[in-house]
Amino acid sequence: MEVSGIEEEEARAEVDIWNYVFGYAKIAVVKCAIELGIADVIENYGSPMPLSELATALRCELSRLHRIMRFMVHYRIFKQEPINQHTVGFSSTPLSRCLIKGGEKSMAAFILFMSSPPWLASWHCLNSRVLETSNNISPFEAANGKDLWSYTETNPYHNEVFNEAMACVARLTVQAIIKGCPEVFDGVKSLVDVGGGINFDLPHVVAVAPKFGSIENVGGDMFMSIPNVDAAFLMWILHDWDDEECIKILKRCREAILEDKGKVIIVEAVLEKDKEVDELGFLGLMLDMAMMAHTDKGKERTLKEWSYVLRQSGFTRFNVKPIRAVQFIIEAYP
């Protein structure tokens, strides 16, 4: 029996809508797995781990843990392998290694932050941001009583979770930069990491920043001034602000770098305009929704929008380089 294109689309919609209904289940189960330390225990076991031993190691109730593991095996977070004729065990995958706390490619801290109660609460207020009658406060502030930055400054636990999440993403992104675009740091003798050599960030952030080698932690306000250096490095900073504020920050960066050989290194998403997006491009659209939900005026930008803020900031030229990450490298020159 032939099925028309419309019937196929309707059949697909019946499946897709259930994925939206239970879309939160995946993040909830992954958060549960991180908190229990499932990936850590299985990785350290070194061979397929029987459910009974996993339950004992985690001090979990056997049948409930089985249901959690069955769900994660379905989504290929872990894999099941035979141990003998009667027993199967659970093994690590590249995906499960992203859930190991402190692992080389761990996203655990970022996932715990993204699934934290104040962060999730913001999504429930997203519609208030879109309405014409919006009072122009962010969904985060509507849900939590303070904007993201004020809430983070006055809530030590959230500040810690936020900083760990940003450090987690930074480690992975810097690895991608070094592997895919190492020349970006050629000739750079002094570097200021704006919002993070010099680590320059808000005073309450650098107050708890660990000491690392010869790196100097400097507290300040990027809207006021930035230390003089060869290059300013901004990763996931500018997407938090609107065009006017971005231009202020970039002007401060331009003042801080050397006129003849200085540059600003920006690590941000670059949205594709009116083009079919690939998987990494789709993540850029997801990030844009996160900016709408959690910041007052933040957004992800297209290449045209980046060109506008850079030109308005006084930069005469820039280039954009892709890396194996959701972000791109943008090098801007006076």
From TrEMBL:
It holds the Pfam family Methyltransf_2. The active site is at H239. PROSITE patterns: SAM_OMT_II (PS51683). GO terms for biological process: methylation. The keyword Disulfide bond does not apply. Residues 198-315 form the O-methyltransferase C-terminal domain. The keyword S-adenosyl-L-methionine applies. Keywords: Methyltransferase, S-adenosyl-L-methionine, Transferase. One of its GO terms (molecular function) is O-methyltransferase activity. Residues 18-101 form the O-methyltransferase dimerisation domain. Belongs to the class I-like SAM-binding methyltransferase superfamily. Cation-independent O-methyltransferase family. This is O-methyltransferase domain-containing protein. It comes from Gossypium mustelinum (Cotton).
